[in-house]
Amino acid sequence: MSADDKAGGAPALKLRGDPIDRVDGRLKVTGAAAYAAEVDVARVAHAVLFVSSVARGRITHIDTSAARAAPGVLAVVTHENVGPVPRQPDLAHKASPGDRVLQVFEDDLVRYSNQPIGVAVADTLERARHAARLVIVRYETEPPIVSLPESFEVEKPSSPRGADPSQKQPLDFMRGDPAVGLVASAVRVDHVYTTPFETHNPMEMHATIAAWHGPQHLTVYDSTQGIFEVRRKLGASLGIPKENVRVISKFVGGGFGGKGSCWSNVVIAALAARHVNQPVKLMVTRPQMFGPVGFRPPTRQHVVLGAAKDGRLTLIRHESRSSTSRFDEFVEHTTAPTRALYWCPNIHTSERLTLLDTGTPQFMRAPGESTGSFAMECAMDELAVAMGIDPVELRLRNHADVDPESGKPWSSKSLKACYQRAAERFGWRRRDPRPGSMSTAMKDGNQLVGWGMATATYPAHQRGAKAGATLWPDGTASVKAGSQDIGTGTYTVMTQVAAETLGLPLARVSFDLGDTDMPETPGSGGSTTAASVGSAVRLVCLALREKLAALTVGDARSPLAGGAARDLRLDGARVTLAGSGRAEALAAVFARNRLETLEVTQEAKSFEGRRDFATRSFGAQFVEVRIDRDFGEVRVARVVSAFAAGRILNAKTARSQFIGGIVWGIGMGLHEQTVYDERLGRVMNADLAEYHVPVNLDVPPIDVIFVDEDDPHVNQVGVKGIGEIGITGVAAAIANAVYHATGKRVRDLPITPDKLL
Amino acid sequence: MRPVRYLKVTTVDAAVAATRAAPDAAFVAGGTSLLDLMKLDVLEPAELVDVNALPLGKIEVAHDGLHVGALVRNSDLARHPDVVARYPLLSEALLAGASPQLRNMATVGGNLLQRTRCSYFRDPATPCNKRAPGAGCGALDGYNRMHAVLGTSDKCIAAHPSDMCVALLALDAVVHTRGPAGPRQIPIADFHILPGEHPERESVLAQGELVTGVSLPARPGFEQSRYLKVRDRASYAFALVSVGAALRIEDGLVREARIALGGVGTKPWRAVEAERLLVGQRPERAAFTRAAEAALAGAKPRKHNAFKVPLARRAIVRALATVKGAA
Fold first, then answer.
1. How many angstroms separate the most distant Cα atoms in chain A?
2. Is there a contact between A446 and B310 if contact means CB atoms under 8 Å apart?
3. Domain contains B287
4. What is the number of structural domains in chain B?
């Protein structure tokens, strides 16, 4: 029985939700939406972090006297005067997947460049900044290591330490016998692919306002992807019960995974506020984004593919290495897409870590799936070239009809339709596979043209979530769930789910979020919010209908008594029974039951129907690149992509999500990289002039095709989540197009001009 | 940000008087470079002398060229009809630089003195002879992909970042200044100086000397000049290599040539020998290639910027071919 069948006569959700404008759009474009640092809090003081200028060593001397004496300064807090701070978790006792080991002035050790080593608090931001720069610090240093080794040999101490409780994915996976697969292969490709450090650069940097109410109670306005995780971590890091902490986050100016954890800056804001006994605002500066608040780790991936003469894979081997910090563990699960993409009898994947003198890496849009699919989907292209098979045809021949990893059937999978529809719209049939062959038609003789494609995929997760709903006597409903809107459209799509389920016009439903006083929900990460919170909103609105039914059609005192629940309609301030002409004022229903409002709370647990299925979204990315023959400047000329991701709640916000992912994929393919000085362990491009993301001129027309997909198994709303799939496969499609244009295979991202000379 | 004194001046004399004996004072116009570097604690002037109110914001057209006030904003200069018609190279160079927001603020005078984007110069936690003389150069054996290959010394390999200066150099611009010793005119080729032993010195300006304007001589025959910029992304990126090129072709032969390079030199780089080789030649690929070889003959690449040498050669050939094609 599908989720919709259980809906008690409630309207089924549309398979492709209406493309309505964002309900918070006006607030945002008029500047009325208050982001964390903009919340008006009385008596707020300003805090500025100061950070280590070396990457590894010890603070031997720290002189804050000039800073403390500067005008307007309220306090300067360092490891010397912070007072007792609870210990950070050891790796065996992490509380959540995003639980990080923080640097909150617990000792004099410097573990990475830009580590927070103190905070200056003053009456104005300018005075706090000035004080922070007056602090004199001396270090005893050791040479840092900030790059991955060339070798795949595991050094001692071996890692990962396997202590991260979030490790639900296997670090090693083996099926069949790779040796047999090798022998059975007629053609092999065997290459190493590398991806660089990348740094999240949301427009809004991490920002916090912390206000204490007495020694044990704290309110925090934070720019975060997880208010409940911030609450938990603040409680644990400050030694107070988490119930004493309230976290509010109404608007977030981008997170992309970077705000999926509570980082040191949040705890430091609370410590500073306690120190000065007044509210404190702390915003991380742009240069400080490069180190203490996460980044995508570099990867080095060795992929071996073997195929029989007919193109069917006989062997997949994918060995991968990424980095973590010396004090914490984060694994970039690059091999996850490899285990899901193609059917192959013999497969071996493994992931290992190298400990570096950097901050701790972090989820960054499609962690593992974006980096891993780059390697795997380039390797598939190389195999297609080696075998003389069209890249789409090769993928079709190896299509995985069931999940290769678990053996379970897919809850839904429409990848073949994605290939077909995107290829047709792109004009893929006209592609001449010979490298450079398509450049002759160009008017500008300096332009090379290449067409490339890759598969996109991202898992469809669901996490338990709660929501509350209230029906008012005037027939309007308000729905709420903790959650957060990180710019994706959560406010909008939840309003739509609630309105459709209750059968109310949008204008009669309000949806609120972003407060830990509201029903508990998971963090907004892993493309799970629409699926998880959407399911909770759907269930709570169904429960509200049921409750209303009990009080009307189920109540002999009601003029609607005896009617069918499925015929109930909300019509202004009345509830009516369709087709009967009968109606009752809500006020009367409430009065009869001595109610002021009708309120329900529901929890959507992970959907039972999921258990027997593997759940993933799939898509196909096709790109055309133009490359200057002499200079190696690669520009993406057009993108056509098709995605099948279950129910789409809002076709407009969904399109924006896909396009945003694809744009980031262009950045990943051509621009983004955080560059370190290997000797100093310092980032050498810690600003937005030198850390390149695509600008408008780099972004071509992007054509997104929705492949409708009705998935009754994946969760209560049939939504698979679309926050991340857009980036996957794009870098590979670009690299494959670059090969097609030039005959040069660049296996090291980003593809900058120097690599093509 | 540390406290600074702020003085707004309304006459050039007052500007000079305010700074002639104050080495810790700095002129500020658009502020696009200075304020950025102050926030990074790279520059720490004790006093800012705001010159925005000086009467130096005009573009004057004359039969023998163009005079551009030091306070003319990059965006205004780039769109000026005489610049577009007579010095397309300059318009293209300006529009290839920075972003619209920055071009709306940045001035001609400030851009002449734009500071390098060398990451070591910009990060006080790293060694840099330009920022802190004697501290050593982090870039020599560090991350130097964006650095210069021409005009370098063992003290500094920082690339000059300006697009505008490359165009001005190709156009034989003259810089007008006023200092404690009175007004003077400095050919742009003599304005910037090589790092040598003293990379902290970047121009011939004396203490208290203010750039008041730039004059562009009439260059008949150079209407087809071009600016070519190769970069990592399509906009808002500093040049990997850029070329300002102009050719005067008569009777099928090159009579005069200008080749100026950006992104490869420690100062805006004029390829004089390459220009000389072109004069008297047919404007053809072989001659362009010989000129390009000559232009990079003295290049000293480091670990990450060796690609700039072939890239610059190719860019020179392309730029010359484009100018010729349009002529």
1. 84
2. no
3. yes
4. 2
**Residue range A145-149: mean pLDDT, rounded:** 95
Structure tokens at A557: 């005192």
What's the half-sphere exposure (Cβ side, CA atoms, 13 Å) at A13?
A: 37
- The interface pTM score, or ipTM, of the predicted complex is 0.97
Does any domain span residue B9? yes
Averaged pLDDT, B288-314: 98
A753 to B230: CB separation less than 8 angstroms, yes or no: yes
Q: Which residue of A has its CA nearest to B40?
A: A287
Q: Which of A424-428, B18-22, B151-155 comes out lowest in average pLDDT?
A: B18-22
Q: Among B35, B50, B65, where does a domain finish? A: B50
Q: Which residue of B has its CA nearest to A132?
A: B1
Which residue of B125, B231, B310 is in closest CB contact with A757? B310
Whole-angstrom Cα distance, residue A288 to residue A51?
8
Q: What is the mean pLDDT of residues B27-34?
A: 97
Is the CB of B235 less than 8 angstroms away from the CB of A696? yes
In a domain, B160, yes or no: no
From the list B116, B134, B105, the residue with the least C-alpha distance to B37 is B116
Q: Is A172 on the interface with B (CB under 8 A)?
A: no
Mutation to test the A interface, candidates B233, B236, B242, B307, most A Cβ within 10 Å: B233
> What contacts B97, CB < 8 A, 6 or more positions away?
B74, B103, B111, B162, B163, B164
Would you say A67 and A136 are in contact if contact means Cβ atoms under 8 Å apart? no
Return d(Cα A643, Cα A658) in angstroms, integer: 9
Which of A126, A630, A671 lies closest to B232 in CB terms? A671
Contact A757, B310 (CB under 8 A): yes
Tell me, yes or no, if A30 comes closer than 8 A to chain B by beta carbon: no
B21: domain range?
A: 5-50
Q: Which long-range contacts (CB under 8 A, 24 or more apart) does B185-194 make?
A: B185/B215, B188/B214, B188/B268, B189/B270, B191/B112, B192/B160, B192/B165, B192/B267, B192/B268, B193/B267, B194/B151, B194/B153, B194/B266, B194/B267
Q: What residues of A are in contact with residue B236 (Cβ under 8 Å)? A: 689, 695
Whether A520 sits among the annotated catalytic residues: the reply is no
User: Which tens digits make up the pLDDT trace of A520-575?
Assistant: 999 999 999 999 999 999 999 999 999 999 999 999 999 999 999 999 999 999 99
Taking residues B24-53, report their average pLDDT. 96
* Torsion sign across C-alpha atoms B201, B205, B211, B216: negative
CATH number of B308's domain: 3.30.390.50
Residue of A nearest to B42 (CA): A133
Which residue, B50, B67, B87, sits at the end of a domain? B50
Q: Compute the nearest-CA separation of B243 from chain A (Å).
A: 13
Asked whether residue B164 is assigned to any structural domain, the reply reads: no
Characterize A23-36 residue by residue with b for buried, 16 or more Cβ atoms within 10 angstroms of its Cβ, and e for exposed: bbeeeeeeeebebb
pLDDT tens string A250-285: 999 999 999 999 999 999 999 999 999 999 999 999
What radius of gyration do chain A's Cα atoms show? Answer: 27
Residue of A147, A630, A636, A751 to mutate, interface with B, max B Cβ within 10 Å? A630
Contact A630 B318 (CB under 8 A): yes
Nearest chain A residue to B1 by CA distance is A130
Cβ(B292)–Cβ(B313) under 8 Å? yes
What is the DSSP pairing of strand A313-325 with strand A245-248? unpaired
Distance from CA of A756 to the nearest CA of B (A): 10
Q: What is the pLDDT of residue A3?
A: 44
Chain B closest-CA separation from residue A288 CA (Å): 12
User: Which residues in chain B are contacts of A675 at CB distance < 8 A?
Assistant: 143, 145
Quote the pLDDT of residue B236. 96
Instruction: Using CB atoms within 10 Å of the CB of residue B102, give its burial: 0 to 12 exposed, 13 to 18 middle, 19+ buried.
Output: middle
| C-beta atoms of A684 and B123 within 8 A | yes
